[in-house]
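# nightly structure sweep
# worker-07 picked up a monomer target from the shared queue
# config: single-sequence mode, recycle default, output format = C-alpha cells
# input follows
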Amino acid sequence: MTKAILSDIPRQNPCAQCGAPIPQPDWIEPGEGCVRYLWTCHACNYRFEAVAIYDEVAVEHPPLAA
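# output follows
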C-alpha cells in the first residue's frame, strides 16, 4: 500500500447501522479510480463496504499479459 493511501485512511467512520464510530477499516483495497473500505462495527457487529471514487487513478496497475 502506498504511503499516500496510508496517510489518507478514514478514521472514526460512523457505523451505517447504529452510528457508533469505527476507529479504522478492516480492509482497504485500492483500485483504478477508487478505494474500497470494509468496516466492522464492534458495537452492533454490522459489516459494510464504502467506496471512495477519485478523478485520478489511486494506484497504477500494469497492463495484464495476453
